[in-house]
Amino acid sequence: MWLTLLTLRRGLSTGRPPRGPSRPPLPSPLPPEPPRDLAVPNGGWSEAMRRHYQRLLAMAAGGAWARLPSYRRARHHGAAVGTPGLGGVTGGRTPPLPPLGDTRLFLRAIEGDGNGFEYAMFLNAAERRLLCLVQPGPYLEGHPGLTHGGAIATIIDSALGTCALAVAGPVVTANLSIDYLA
After folding, report:
1. Fewest CB atoms within 10 A around its CB: which of 41, 85, 134, 174?
2. Domain ranges in the chain?
3. How many helices (H) and strands (E) would you count in the chain?
């Protein structure tokens, strides 16, 4: 079912007539804007986060590791990570993309520095490894002061997916099972 929805979103036809009333046209695309790399220190980062980030940047200066930029919208993010086309999903065709409007990557949907997922990823493609530095914001809490387990699973899924996309090509998460222990 998920692939069917993805295929329809990408503008391919299923060969069946549309069901129900016709949809209004999609909003026109946003005017081009220079994307802001969100994987760099900002006012929401703690001192410990900045310290670890500087340590990882120094490690990346050696050349084996690379800091991955992170953007709010998928059209900027995929190109930055080096994601190949959707050949595995669309049979080698690259379908035309519909206007995106104000679509956002889930991890970058929360406005305000420090309120949601603050993270930076560093990739070593030769070793097929990714390091993800994360600082969860207050909008990700379950109980006060505790990060919600779903938010933790989300960042793990995103880090695994980013690594897989960079070293193996297009993938989707078929199953992610996490057991939390107290």
Report:
1. 174
2. 48-168
3. 5, 3
Residue 163 tokens read as 């690594």
Q: Is 102 a catalytic residue?
A: no
Strand partners, 82: none
Q: Rg (Cα) of the chain, in Å, rounded?
A: 18
Per-residue pLDDT at 72: 85
Mean pLDDT value of segment 84-88:
39
Determine which one of 37, 102, 113, 157 is catalytic: 157
77 compared with 94, residue with greater pLDDT: 77
- According to the model, what pLDDT value does residue 28 have? 56
Give the Cα separation of 31 and 101 in Å (integer): 9
